[in-house]
Amino acid sequence: MSSTIYQPIRTPSALPGPTASSARVAKVLSGSGRASRSGIWVGIFAITMSFAAFTSALFVRQGFAADWTHITLPSILYANTLALLVSSATLRMARRAIAAGPVTESRAARKGLGWLMATLALGFVFVVGQYEAWRQLAARGLYLATNPNSSFYYVLTAMHGLHVLAGIAALVFAMSRLTARPAALRRSTFEATATYWHFMGVLWLYLLLVLRTKL
């Protein structure tokens, strides 16, 4: 009985990958107002289901594994978490600045753009920090195929990183619109981008809790 349960969940690659959902989200964030409002929640639902499937596989794999050993997470993950949470705050400030007046006003556009640049910089800090965490694990001899723990760590953080990069692309798109033609930036598109970015922060807090308690 154990072989029929154990084999399908042994490799995370057997589960749905993040490529389709991240591509769908990127398309929605750059789309029309109605598509941005309704499509972003469809994308968030798809991402949530994808991560739920992977974490469920992690729980089951841990329950049936005799070779499961806990790993010490790189301390840089907590600095990365702080950067992502602060980026949500700066994005909220950008949203407030843009909502304070017509987006066509140069003052409101410049202020909003400044906060968006801060958000973008913090997003890159998070991504680079996640890569550094990978390097620290590799220096300890923990790679993707070393053990089940490291496999799930790399897969979960890579999936989340890809979706953060999709959010960064959406931020760049919003900044380009705000810089070139402020009136061309749809408020619905900006709201969808903000919703998605905040969701990435909440999702990372969930993943960090899973990584701390299960790996």
Secondary-structure arrangement, i.e. CATH architecture? Up-down Bundle
Please describe the biggest sheet, giving its number of strands, its sense, and whether it closes into a barrel. none
Q: What proportion of the residues is helical, as a percent range?
A: over 70%
Radius of gyration: 19 Å
Going by helix content, strand content and strand pairing, the class is mainly alpha
Number of domains: 1
Q: What is the overall shape?
A: elongated
The CATH H-level homologous superfamily: Cytochrome c oxidase, subunit III, four-helix bundle
Order of secondary-structure elements: HHHHHHH
Quaternary structure type: single chain
CATH topology: Four Helix Bundle (Hemerythrin (Met), subunit A)
| Low-pLDDT stretches | 1-16
Quote the distance from N terminus to C terminus. 25 Å
Number of helices: 7
- The CATH first-level class comes to Mainly Alpha
Determine the mean pLDDT. 82
Number of strands: 0
Percent of sequence in beta strands? under 5%
Describe the structure.
By secondary structure, the protein is mostly helical. It has a single domain, classed as Cytochrome c oxidase, subunit III, four-helix bundle (Four Helix Bundle (Hemerythrin (Met), subunit A), Up-down Bundle). Helices cover about 75% and strands about 0% of the residues. Helix 2 packs antiparallel against helix 3. The longest helix is centred in the middle third of the chain and has 34 residues. The radius of gyration is 19 Å and the shape is elongated. The two termini are about 25 Å apart. The N terminus is likely disordered.
